[in-house]
Amino acid sequence: MPKIYKPGKVAIVLQGRQAGKKVVIIKQLDEGTKERPYPHAIVAGIERYPLKVTKRMGAKKLAKRSKVKPFIKVVNYSHLFPTRYALELEGLKGVVGSETFKEVSQREDSKKQIKKLLEDRYTSGKNKWFFQPLRF
Q1: Up-side HSE of residue 93: CA atoms within 13 Å toward CB?
Q2: pLDDT, tens digit, for every residue of 103-135?
Q3: Please, are residues 27 and 8 in contact by the beta-carbon 8 Å criterion?
Q4: What is the pTM for the complete model shown?
């Protein structure tokens, strides 16, 4: 079977609290691990998307509405829906690993780094489709 989930690939979460949210695959584990004996992936996604901005808004309001709330999660392959899109974020690969989920402080630090990377990508205007919520 071909590998569908590769680092940088965009997927949609189907189950759980983040159902319907877009995520980026950071690391895929096709064979699973000792703790999780099923195929799964470490993903980073957007829990709260940025709000709509217009030309009339001031810089302060624009900065507030351009904020992104990220999440990181280990998700079973059966709860992911792959898309044809990919997001090239070189900084994400080293931020989150298997050991990140063991301690809360590490998780918070990695979320802050992901937030900074995603907000930079959003303000630069690249990959606008990733920062808009799914409409269904």
Answers
A1: 8
A2: 888 888 889 998 998 888 898 888 889 999 988
A3: no
A4: 0.85
